[in-house]
Amino acid sequence: MRSTLSGQTILLLLLILTLAIPGLSQSKDNDYAEMDLSELVNLDIYASSVLTAHIHNRGDWMLDYSYMSMSMDGMRGGTRSSATSEVLESYMVSPLNMMMDMHMLMAMHAPSNELTLMFMLNVIDKEMELETRAGNVFTTKSSGLGDITVSVNYAIGKSDTHFGELEYSATVGISFPTGSIDEEDFVMAMNQNVRLPYPMQLGSGTYDVIVGGAYTFFSPNWYWGGQVLLTLRTQENKNHYRLGNRTDLKLWINRALGDSLSVNLRIDAYSLDNIHGEDEDLNPMMSPTADPNSAAKQVANASLGLDLYLPGTQSNEYRMGFSFGKPIYQDFDGLQLETDQIIKINVQALF
Length: 351
Ligand SMILES: [Cu+2]
What we know:
Blueprint: H1 7-24, H2 37-42, E1 61-78, E2 80-82, H3 84-90, E3 93-109, E4 115-132, E5 137-145, E6 148-161, E7 164-176, E8 184-187, E9 192-195, E10 208-219, E11 222-233, E12 241-242, E13 246-257, E14 261-272, E15 276-277, E16 297-311, E17 317-350
Antiparallel strand pairs: 1-2, 1-3, 1-17, 3-4, 4-5, 4-6, 6-7, 7-10, 8-9, 10-11, 11-13, 12-15, 13-14, 14-16, 16-17
């Protein structure tokens, strides 16, 4: 199914929603407008760059709209780049580059000081350019709703250490198969509309269980920590395959610079397994992207980000974030597209 809304329309709607809803909210315990950044850091709510691992205070609501643009360019096997001509020795078609744009809306609410609930929805646009053995270049596209995730962050405990206050938390969640795995487009080598390969699909097609744990240190003006998240796929999807399980390791360090700005450095590493089973509408000889044994990878991306704290009204707080990331390590099974860069922009409201 093709999305009938364009990415720009969705972006605008999400932006309006993010900024409008806090204005309707009633009274609450914390008055963010009167706090400076170091107080916010210590309150454990200044974590714009670490969306998946933070805990809110009881009664808090948070809305976040994020835009992510990832560009991939050129092929790689193992840890070495691979020329298009090499790929075409084994496959009929070689990917050249790919763009993935993602609009993500996240809502968080803390019914208690221990529990923070998260709801995450995303809309994805994908575009891949490919080359045939005959030298013809063509583009395939897919777009629409991705998988919706609902999860809970649970604050296990806190302790005072030499480095500042240490907080532990655990995460449990479910990813629902709302993203399409039946995306089609015109493929020149086949001369017709066909099922697009695995990386061009929008969801996993399976219910996925997410479990993880995080630790975070808070000290005046500093905020740093790490998180491990496992994404475990259950059963096979309706197209007779199951994406590989995934392990994410996230490390971050944030430093407040004055009252309204903070800078952060992050490492986002993950390990993804190969695809089990096979979509029978895909021919693994066609392209490495249609080959279930050409999907496993170990990747580490480093990014540098800025968060801007915008004073809100009496009961609201707003912030904006920007980050730029590059891969520092990529090791692939088979032949896959290399990531070139990742740009993220987000707007956040707390009320
Ligand atoms: Cu939050």
